[in-house]
C-alpha cells in the first residue's frame, strides 16, 4: 500500500521543482521583455507564459507518458532522431548554453555592479567564472544532500529576498510604462511566445522530470495513479510560483526605463533596478538571489548532462564528465553574456519547436493510434521550418529564406513551423493508413502494441 504523503511533503517537492526551474533564464528574459514591450508587456507576457511556464507541466506529463526518459520519448520518431535530439538537448542544457549563461548572469548581477573600473573587467569575469564553476563541480560531486536542501532551505531564502524586491517595485514604482520598442510594434503575442523559448524550461522539464518522478517514488509511492496525483499537486505549486515570478519581474522591467534607461540584457535591467529601488543595498539583495538560483541551476544541469553522457559513453565516469563539461562551460562563459545569448539562439529556435511537437504528439497519440509515420512526418514538417528560423537567427541566407518561404503562414513571426507541422501530421496519417501500420496505444505509462 502507498504511504500517505502530507501537504508539507507535497509543498517541499513543489518548491524543489520550482528551485530547479528558477534559474538565470527565468529572471533575465521577462524584465528585458518588459523593457522592450512597454505598454504591450501584458500581451507579450501572455505568449511568454505559454512557452516559458505553461508547457512545463505538460512536458513532464508527456515524459511520463512517453516512457520516462527523453530518449524513449524522441525514439517514437526514430532511434537516430532520439540520439540527435537528446545529445543536442543535454549539451545545450549543460556546457554550451545554460552553464555559461548562468555563470555570466550571476557575474553581471552579483559582482559587476560593485566593480569601480571597467579596465580589467575581463579579468574579473575569468576569476569569478573559475571560482563559480569550481563550486558547481564541488556541489555536483555528490548531489544527494544538495537536492534534499533545495526545497527546504535555498528556495525560501531567495524567494523571500526576491519578494522584497518585487514588493518594493510595486509600492514605489521606478517610473511609468513606456511605449513599445521596435520588435514589439506588431505580432506582440507571438514575439512573447518565441521569447519564452529562452527560459529553456520545456527542455529542462525533459531532464528534471525524471528527478521529480524519482523523488515522489522515494516517498514510498508506487502506483502510477498516486504518483500522478502528487505530481499534479506539486506541479501546480511550481507553476503558480513561476507565473507570479515572471509577471512580477516583467513589471520591474516595464517600469524601469525612466530610472535606468534601456539596457542590453535582462541581467543589467535587474541589477540596476535593484540599485534604483534600494540603493547600494539592492546589489546585495539581487546578488544573493541570483547567486542562489544560479548555483542550483548549474549543479542540476551539470549533474544531469554528466549522468547522461556516462550512460551513453561509459568509457568516462560521471566525475570525469563533470570535469570535461565544466572546462567547456568555463571556456564559453568568458565570451560574455551577450555573445552567449547570440550563440545559443539558433540552437534554441531549432530545439524548442521540436520539443513542443513531441509534447503535442504524445498527448494526441491515442487519437492517431501512435502511428510512427505521423511522428516522423510531423517532426520533419516542424524541423525543416525550425531549421530555417535557426539559419535566419544566425544571419545565414536571411533574405533568401524570407523571400522563398515567406508564403508559409506565421513564418514572419517565427512560428511557421506550426503550419508545416500540421501539414506533416496529415501526410503522416495518410501514409500510415495506406501502409496499414501497427498502432501503439498509450495506457498509463505502459505502451500496448496493437496489430
TrEMBL record:
It comes from the Bacteria. Its main location: membrane. Belongs to the branched chain amino acid transporter family. It is found in: Cell membrane. The keyword Ribonucleoprotein does not apply. Component of the transport system for branched-chain amino acids. Gene3D superfamilies: Amino acid/polyamine transporter I (1.20.1740.10). It is a multi-pass membrane protein. This is Branched-chain amino acid transport system carrier protein. NCBIfam families: livcs (TIGR00796). Pfam families: Branch_AA_trans. The chain crosses the membrane at residues 7-30, 42-61, 81-102, 122-141, 153-175, 195-213, 234-254, 281-309, 321-341, 347-367, 374-391, 411-432. Keywords: Amino-acid transport, Cell membrane, Membrane, Transmembrane, Transmembrane helix, Transport. GO terms for biological process: isoleucine transport; L-leucine transport. InterPro entries: Brnchd-chn_aa_trnsp_Livcs (IPR004685). GO terms for cellular component: plasma membrane. GO terms for molecular function: L-isoleucine transmembrane transporter activity; L-leucine transmembrane transporter activity; L-valine transmembrane transporter activity.
